[in-house]
Write a structure and sequence with these properties.
The complex is a heterodimer of chains A (245) and B (258). Chain A has 9 helices and 10 strands. Chain A is of the alpha/beta class and 245 residues long. With 258 residues, chain B is mainly alpha-helical. The chains are: A alpha/beta (245), B mainly alpha (258). Bound molecules: adenosine-5'-triphosphate and magnesium ion (MG).
Chain lengths: 245, 258
């Protein structure tokens, strides 16, 4: 294993009762990779992503994160989750806290940062996404696009080594999709490792270093955006692309 | 009978006899003081019982929801985790037993058992007995209120907390419970009102609460109408007052957008 592999997934399987969501997924995620996961509804994209930080407990298989098998029950998963930011389709901001409090809670409780330190970092991140003036707002006072940008910087406050996105723009009004993708693009440009489940094919083409096509709980095809979009090999990918493009 | 008398008599005598009966029931021998001290006892029992109920209810609710959320331990997990699971399972069972017993029996029977059976051999203050009895009773209902409050919070909130690296307990403490408590404040206010009325059975252990006070006056003056209607009016006034407060709180919570 080369040292620039951040996450290595081996034969990952997940069953919900009798429902098989993942049927043996193998994948390497290297540092600074931007891996976009595409595939039809129910193909296991979310389950795959949620297994990476163990929000879903895999039925079998291993996930090496920075060399540690985090599926080992003896591992303290909280330690590792600090280094894996996650952004949800439904934003999941904490509605009873201001934007600033949303962003400083975890760094203060988990990284032992002082309030001033945590707020400094939060403010500079807010600056980066153009929301410095909303620091004292509550989530309900924000637009969807603003909420998602806050959710992204909230995760960044923990200085993660990888960011996981599960359809971050699917719950947004069309006119707000752009502002969120913009933030994600600049994050990718800054060298962040990202795994993105998305239906935004434009983003995948432009930003992804690798595109993974999933169907029925398996990775059917993977490659560079050009390979996937201009020279798809499998019939399933071809018919999927026909439907969505 | 008195009531019918009251209606049949002509207005002049009615008023005169009303004043006379008012005097004999409330003024003579300072009988109103019974009502006042009874009211005090009722309020003290209600207040402290709710406090105990909140503590018990909170603990039971957290245990029940934690157990429901917990995965069964798998092979290869450290012994510590398996032991934790078994322990929690046992405590969860005890909580369920508590809820079933308390909610399945009348509160009068519970207070009688606590006073005459459990505390039979110890000389314990009756007010304290009532507080404990109603506290344990209320705890069962509060537990279910809080549990429904916790379950009403979107699971995305929980996942967002955990994905940041917060532990289960930290997520419950900083993220879930504050939101749940806000949602259930009105229901807890109602529980307080229900409790206030339920303490009227405190007389069964010879405790002079508001109801018992009215009854004592009745036994002295042989007049049922005056003292019992007075007691009813006091309860009604209290309940209306607290209902007003709860409604106001509910409106405030609903209008605040966070
Ligand atoms: N918590 C769950 N319980 C039971 N079955 C589940 C659960 N989560 C997912 N599944 C099932 O697992 C399969 C994969 O679901 P998943 O959500 O990963 O798909 P997806 O590719 O993200 O789909 P979408 O594009 O609709 O989000 C589906 O058949 C789904 O019904
Ligand atoms: Mg999904």
């Amino acid at each position: 294993m080369t040292t620039d592999v951040l996450i290595e997934v081996k034969d990952l399987k997940k069953e919900f009762g009798r429902q098989k969501a993942l049927n043996g997924v193998n994948v390497h995620i290297k540092k600074a990779d931007v891996m976009v996961v595409i595939g039809p509804s129910g193909s296991g994209k979310s389950t795959f992503l949620r297994c990476l930080n163990l929000l879903e407990t895999p039925t079998s298989g291993t996930i090496l994160f920075e060399g540690t098998d985090i599926t080992d029950p003896r591992v303290d998963i909280n330690e590792h989750r600090r280094k894996m930011g996650m952004v949800f389709q439904q934003f999941n901001l904490f509605p009873h806290m201001t934007v600033l409090k949303n962003m400083t809670l975890a760094p203060m409780k988990l990284l032992n940062k002082s309030k001033a330190e945590a707020e400094d970092k939060a403010m500079s991140l807010l600056e980066r996404v153009g929301l410095r003036d909303r620091a004292d707002a509550y989530p309900s006072q924000l637009s969807g696009g603003q909420k998602q940008r806050i959710a992204i910087v909230r995760a960044l406050c923990m200085d993660p080594n990888v960011m996981l996105f599960d359809e971050p723009t699917s719950a947004l009004d069309p006119e707000m999709v752009g502002e969120v993708l913009e933030v994600m693009k600049s994050l990718a440009d800054s060298g962040m490792t990202m795994v993105v489940v998305s239906h935004e094919m434009g983003f995948a083409r432009e930003v992804a270093t690798r595109v993974v096509f999933m169907d029925e709980g398996c990775i059917v095809e993977e490659g560079s955006p050009e390979d996937i979009f201009t020279a798809p090999k499998s019939d399933r990918l071809k018919s999927f692309l026909n439907k969505i493009l | 009978m008195y009531f019918i008398d009251f209606l049949l008599n002509s207005p002049g005598p009615v008023l005169a006899s009303f004043m006379e009966r008012f005097r004999s029931n409330f003024i003579i021998d300072d009988r109103w003081k019974y009502l006042l001290s009874g009211l005090k006892v009722t309020l003290i029992i209600t207040f402290f019982a709710l406090l105990i109920g909140l503590i018990i209810g909170f603990v039971v609710a957290i245990i029940r929801t934690s157990f429901d959320k917990m995965d069964k331990p798998k092979k290869g997990q450290p012994f510590r985790k398996k032991l934790g699971y078994v322990l929690l399972k046992l405590i969860n069972f005890i909580c369920k037993l508590y809820l079933t017993i308390i909610r399945g029996t009348p509160v009068v029977v519970q207070i009688l058992i606590i006073y005459f059976v459990i505390f039979a051999s110890v000389n314990i203050d009756k007010t304290l007995t009532a507080i404990i009895a109603f506290g344990f009773n209320s705890g069962a209902y509060v537990a279910e209120i809080i549990r429904s409050g916790i379950m009403s919070i979107d699971k995305g909130q929980f996942e967002a907390g955990r994905s940041l690296g917060l532990s289960y307990i930290q997520t419950m403490y900083y993220i879930i419970t504050p939101q749940a408590l806000k949602n259930i404040l009105p229901a807890l206010g109602n529980e307080f009102i229900v409790l206030l009325k339920e303490t009227a059975v405190s007389g069964y252990i010879a405790l002079v609460d508001l109801t018992k006070a009215g009854d004592i006056i009745r036994s002295r003056t042989y007049d049922a109408f005056m003292p019992l209607i007075a007691v009813a009016l006091i309860y009604l006034a209290l309940v209306m007052f607290f209902t007003y407060l709860v409604n106001k709180l509910e409106r405030r919570l609903r209008s605040s957008d966070h």
